Amino acid sequence: MINMKRIVFLLTTVLCVIWVKSNAQLIAPEKVLVVYLSRTNNTKAVAEMIQKNVGGTLVALELEKPYPQNYQETVAQVSSENETGYLPPLKTKIEAIEKYDVVFVGFPTWGMKLPPPVKTFFKQYDLSGKTIIPFNTNGGYGIGSSFQTVKELCLKSKVLEGFTVRGGSERDGQLLMIKTDKAKQTEADVKKWLLKLKII
Ligand SMILES: Cc1cc2nc3c(=O)[nH]c(=O)nc-3n(C[C@H](O)[C@H](O)[C@H](O)COP(=O)(O)O)c2cc1C
User: Fold this and answer.
1) Best exposed site among 19, 35, 124, 166 by fewest CB in 10 Å?
2) For the segment 94-118, what is each residue's pLDDT rounded down to a tens digit?
3) Span from the CA of 117 to the centroid of ligand 1 (angstroms)
4) Per the domain annotation, does 5 fall within a domain?
5) How far is the CA of 53 from the centre of ligand 1 (A)?
6) Can you spell out the DSSP letters for 166-188?
7) pTM surpassing 0.85?
8) Residue 22 falls within a domain, yes or no?
9) How far apart are the first and last CA of the chain?
């Protein structure tokens, strides 16, 4: 009889430990950085959804010299920067990047490529040994070479499967499109992706 009680006690303890572990946050929020580039706030909307689920520090990448307001002028400038390999200096400074283990990096597709300011970020900060998780919004033509470039710029990091969703199309006057019903659907898709990556 005493043995039976002991067994029940032990089993309950083991089950409690398993339950506590399965409910624990998988990554400590203070180890997570969510950094993003966004011009018309679609990528910002996704960045905020990630932060809502995972926690962490949210940082917008801003430039020392912002791109022109005019869309076509921006397209032309980006194209020339891509040709010459120019890395536009960032105004944003990230404090103590070494304290983060997981870095989400978000950006729109620009000219079917990774935007130059995001290349600046990868060149400027030492992300070796960290887990990098890209995310993207685009005008309907997809990620282009952007995720591949992230991998190439982060050879000393572990790069996980990225997330992409259609955002706006500034060319056609569509600015922030990840709102209302589209935001609800995107939130559900972001959650599914984070679960698949076992981040939450
Ligand atoms: C300079 C520039 C170039 C772009 N190039 C592309 C492109 O090649 N393919 C695409 O699908 N969308 C392209 N877009 C559209 C953006 O990727 C899309 O609107 C995205 O959702 C914008 O994100 P944001 O609101 O965070 O700035 C481009 C937008 C800009 C401003």
Assistant:
1) 19
2) 999 999 999 999 999 999 999 999 9
3) 14
4) no
5) 25
6) E--BGGGTB---S-HHHHHHHHH
7) yes
8) no
9) 42
Whether 37 and 43 have beta carbons less than 8 Å apart is answered as yes
Q: Report if residue 3 sits inside a domain.
A: no
Q: What CA–CA distances, in Å, run from 79 to 27, 63, 116, 183, 185?
A: 38, 17, 9, 30, 32
Whether 29 lines ligand 1, by a CB cut-off of 6 Å, is no
CATH number at residue 137: 3.40.50.360
Interval between CA 194 and ligand 1 midpoint (Å): 24
69 lies in which domain range? 27-196
State if residue 117 touches ligand 1 by the CB under 6 angstroms criterion: no
Question: What is the signed CA dihedral for 117, 74, 37, 97, rounded to 10 degrees?
Answer: 20
Q: Would 19 be classed as within a structural domain?
A: no
Total tally of structural domains belonging to the chain: 1
DSSP 82-94: HHHT--PPBS---
pLDDT tens-digit map of 145-192: 999 999 999 999 999 999 999 999 999 999 999 999 999 999 999 999
